[in-house]
User: Which sequence fits this backbone?
């Protein structure tokens, strides 16, 4: 879809020295109830190129694809003893944050062709392998759907995402000049032949 990148933002795979240990996360199929969380990540990740909420809603509900969400599974990390009051406060805080969306991704497939529509991860969770895990799940889904050729577009100015895609077998097949608007950035078109 024009204006949308199927790549994690440029610094998405960078591990920061001051970053806390990776949170536990799980990947599940997105539903309409995830739209607000997905759109918050979408806007923060893609800015002016972000999809409209109605477009994303249609994508999430489409029979031609599958959207997935990586959500945090809270781990307490508390090593000491707590009073009953401290435990109640912690449990309330954990409940609010325990299934926070960390990223999402989408696949569209028709017949033997598929397209990685998008992948995005919240800034503070980048560098933890979430983008790679989302992509791996999309590859499994593409195989399940009988996709033989999988395509994507990625910003030419995003070497981190391009390297991620190359690492799982995508190769560059062309360029779409000025594809990402309003930024005027070229899209590198990539393709992966799915093994059968």
Assistant:
């Amino acid at each position: 879809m024009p204006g949308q990148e199927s790549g994690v933002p440029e610094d998405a795979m960078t591990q920061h020295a001051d970053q806390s240990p990776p949170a536990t996360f799980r990947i599940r199929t997105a539903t309409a109830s995830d739209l607000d969380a997905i759109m918050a990540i979408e806007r923060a990740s893609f800015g002016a190129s972000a999809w409209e909420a109605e477009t994303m809603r249609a994508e999430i509900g489409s029979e031609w694809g599958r959207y997935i969400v990586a959500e945090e599974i809270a781990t307490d990390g508390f090593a000491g003893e707590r009073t009953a009051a401290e435990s109640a406060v912690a449990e309330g805080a954990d409940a609010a944050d325990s299934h926070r969306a960390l990223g999402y991704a989408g696949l569209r497939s028709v017949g033997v062709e598929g397209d990685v529509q998008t992948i995005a991860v919240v800034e503070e969770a980048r560098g933890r392998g979430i983008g790679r895990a989302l992509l791996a799940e999309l590859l499994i889904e593409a195989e399940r759907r009988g996709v033989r050729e999988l395509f994507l577009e990625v910003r030419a100015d995003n070497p981190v995402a391009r390297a991620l895609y190359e690492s799982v077998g995508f190769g560059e097949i062309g360029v779409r000049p000025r594809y990402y608007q309003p930024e005027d950035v070229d899209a590198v078109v990539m393709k992966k032949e799915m093994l059968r």
Summary: Residues 24-193 form a domain with the Aminopeptidase fold (CATH 3.40.630.30).
